[in-house]
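Weekly modeling sync, notes
Attendees: AB, CL, MP (scribe)

Item 1: holo prediction request
CL wants a bound-state model with shikimate-3-phosphate before deciding which constructs to order. AB pointed out that an apo prediction alone won't tell us much about the pocket. Agreed to run with the ligand included and paste results into these notes for async review.

Input as submitted:
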Amino acid sequence: MKAILVGFMGSGKTTVGTLLAQKLGIPYHDLDDMIVSSAGKSIKQIFAEDGEPTFRQLEHDALKKALKDDGILGTGGGTPIQTANFELLQATEIPVVLLDVMPETIIRRLASDTERPLAKQLGLNGLVDLKGRRDLKYEQVSDFRVATDDLTPLQVAEVINQNL
Ligand code: S3P
C-alpha cells in the first residue's frame, strides 16, 4: 500500500481514498468491502447475526491481507482501536494518515445513517463519546493528520498527496 487512511466513521475515508487513488492512478481498497466480500454479507448482517467480535476477527484478517496489496487502503473507524491492528499499523513502513473531523461534522454526516450498526446502537451522543475515547489511538497510530472539516474531499486528497 502507498497510504493507509484512518479516522472515525464519517471522516471521509472512502470518498477521499477513492479520489486519492484516482489521482495517483492506483487502486483503492476498502477494508469494509473486503470484509463484506469474504463474509458474503453486509456489515450490518455480520453485526446482527454473528456479533461484533466476529466482525473484528474478520477485520483483522482482512487488514493483514490488505497490507500486502498495492494502492490506497481505507480502514474502518474501529480498525486502529483493536490492539492487534494498532500494533500492525504502528509497525508498518506505509504512511498512516488520520482524517480528523470535529464532532459537529460527525453528527451532521451520520444523523441519517442506516448502514452503520454502531451509529444505530449508540445514537449521536454515544458516537461523539466513542470518538472521544478513540481519538488518542488515532493520533498515536498515524504519521500525519489532515483537519478535514473545512476542506472538500478533493482538497483533502491533494493535501495527503503533497505529504506522501
Ligand atoms: C466501525 C466503522 C465502520 C465499520 C463498522 C464498525 C467502527 O467503518 O467498519 O461499522 O467501529 O467505527 P466506517 O468508518 O467506514 O464507517
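Recorded for review: The CA atoms of residues 24 and 161 lie 8 Å apart.
Action items: CL to compare against the apo run; MP to circulate these notes.
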